Amino acid sequence: MKPVQKSRIPANKAFIIKELIAPYFDNKWHFHSEFQLFVALKGKGTRFIGDNMQSFEEGDMVMTGPNLPHLWRNDLEYFDSNSGLETHGIVIYFPDTFLNNSVFKLEEFSFISSLLHKSSRGIQISGKTNLEVTSLMKELLEVEGIESIIHLLKILQKIAVSEDCRLITEATYINTHKESEKDRMGMVFDFVMHNFRDKISLKEVADICNLSESAFSRYFKSRANQSFSDFLSQIRINHAYKLLQDESMNISQICYECGFFTLSNFNKQFKERSGKTPLEYRKEFTTRY
After folding, report:
1. Is the Cα dihedral 226, 228, 233, 237 positive or negative?
2. Per-residue pLDDT at 197 exceeds 50
3. CA 177 to CA 2: how far, in whole Å?
4. Do residues 152 and 95 lie in contact, with contact meaning Cβ atoms separated by under 8 Å?
5. Is the dihedral of CA 174, 178, 184, 186 positive or negative?
6. Domain at 203, CATH number
7. In this structure, is residue 44 part of a structural domain?
8. Residue 178 lies in a domain
């Protein structure tokens, strides 16, 4: 597979930071050779990191290591030019040769060195650390010169010593995508996100990738660490979580809106993945908020 390759750091810069404001985040599944720290200040959707997929909303913060595939895919309404919706984020890129790597071998940088190593699996940052790092990232947008590097090191150190972090991908995950392949996974993600409400056959997605059904099944599982049917089910369940938080639709309506064709199957798959029935989830969410 050949995800879009990206390198945004000029040769004369140690790192770059960008503020992103657009109708939707970059919708191309990709990886690059730089470390990345990203926070979504505004926007909702589904986040793909390596073999992991989950919903994201405002405040989502993730650090990814070099060549770890990722995508923040906004919900479909963000692609409607009449929706008035907007996304806002801040992203920092720094190279795998940051400060020539030499300083990270020193004892004083041991925590940051460990952080960079762990980022190969993706790191989600939450809680108090998330709020503090978000504030520091906003400040860094206005800082220049040597002070900007010092500021970035403060951010990395704060994450490195925090207990508000969790690894995202499975320990066994390896990026096996090859330059010589086409952007198959990107096409699959795009097709599924547009059509998960309808019946999707294995042949349809296999045809998109110009593969037989059996070859596609092997290909997808080797890249996503799960079968295509499990992936599709999770996309639908993730959408159900969002709809259940709004009481304007009943459970039966949500079932069909998410692409399930029988209420019993929806209840079964929802409980298998969440440990609760859709009704129990809705009641718990309503009570909590």
Report:
1. positive
2. yes
3. 7
4. no
5. positive
6. 1.10.10.60
7. yes
8. no
Q: Decide: 7 and 32 in contact? Cβ < 8 Å.
A: yes
Q: Both 210 and 138 in a single domain?
A: no
Residues in the chain: 289
Q: How far apart are CA 22 and CA 43, in angstroms?
A: 10
**Which region, left, alpha or beta, applies to residue 163 given φ > 0 means left and ψ of -120 to 50 means alpha?**
alpha
Nearest to 118 by CA among 69, 187, 68, 72: 68
pLDDT in tens, 87-133: 999 999 999 888 766 667 777 888 998 999 999 999 999 999 999 99
What CA–CA distances, in Å, run from 264 to 23, 37, 71, 132, 242? Answer: 37, 41, 32, 44, 20
Nearest to 91 by CA among 135, 156, 149, 141: 141
- Give yes or no for a contact between 278 and 267, defined as CB atoms under 8 angstroms apart: yes
Residue bearing tokens 């092997």 = 218
The average confidence (pLDDT) of the chain is 90
Instruction: Specify the higher pLDDT residue, 55 or 174.
Output: 55
Q: What's residue 30's pLDDT?
A: 86
Please provide the DSSP assignment of 213-233 as one string. HHHHHHHHHHHHSS-HHHHHH
